[in-house]
Amino acid sequence: MKQFLVFMCPTCRHFTNAPLGQQHRRCSYCGKIIDISKAAVALFENQNLAIAAVKEFNAGKSDEFQLAVERSRERLSGLIPSKKLTAEEIASVEGEEGGLPTGKMSRLMRMLEREARDAPCEIDRLRSVSESYRLEWEWVEESLNKLANTGVITFPRPWTVRLVEAKVSGERPSGGLVDVTRDIVAFLTEHGGSASLEDIITHFTERGILQASVELSLDRLMQLGKIYRPTTGTVSLL
Ligand SMILES: [Zn+2]
Q1: What is the pLDDT of residue 141?
Q2: From the CA of 40, how far away is ligand 1's center (Å)?
Q3: To which H or E segment does residue 204 belong?
Q4: Of 4, 55, 199, 216, which has the fewest CB atoms closer than 10 Å, so is most exposed?
Q5: Rounded to the nearest 5°, which phi and psi values hold at 96?
Q6: CA–centroid distance, residue 13 to ligand 1 (Å)
Q7: pLDDT at res. 170
Q8: Assigned CATH topology for domain 181-237
Q9: Which residues sit with Cβ closer than 5 angstroms to ligand 1, an ion?
Q10: What is the structure's pLDDT at 139?
């Protein structure tokens, strides 16, 4: 049976759990990624016990949590493995170094494509390789949340991330929103690869497309690393 840790989300102060050994999980309450190594933790022998404890602690018995933390301290010392990359893993990432794209979002997408496309990838793993992609972890955390909100990635488990295949043009998600990513690329191509944000929005709203559709599509293109903003108010093809 896998042992579980119970700890508190520093952002929203809800209690939650993760298998022993995981160092990051996404909070189910506020969506922030919790660094478990920085939290006070209580150890439980299996997930059911951990879930019961989470319920109890969330019901307001936080001194019970403190007691559980005290009780766990000794058993935990020596139990938590320190996760280090193997030489092979480091080599496989470094081999990529020369060919890393310049845009931050493109490097993030490259990382996700390599690590989280074929199978879910542990957040811990992303944390340990993000530096090799010249990505700051704080920024990665924020971006993962945005990508999850726009459906580019999912969290199959709270401690894993999976890249969802890019959606095809022409879908109509909801509320009259349409995907105009291809049309934006075509528009930019026609205009020599660059246009002002205002011109893009005007071009599409004059043709009956909602501004929100244009903005969402621009976000998606940005996330896919197809466009970037050289200056505020300007959009260019990468
Ligand atoms: Zn939270």
Answers
A1: 94
A2: 15
A3: helix 197-205
A4: 55
A5: -80, -25
A6: 6
A7: 42
A8: Arc Repressor Mutant, subunit A (1.10.10)
A9: 9, 11-12, 27, 29-30
A10: 93
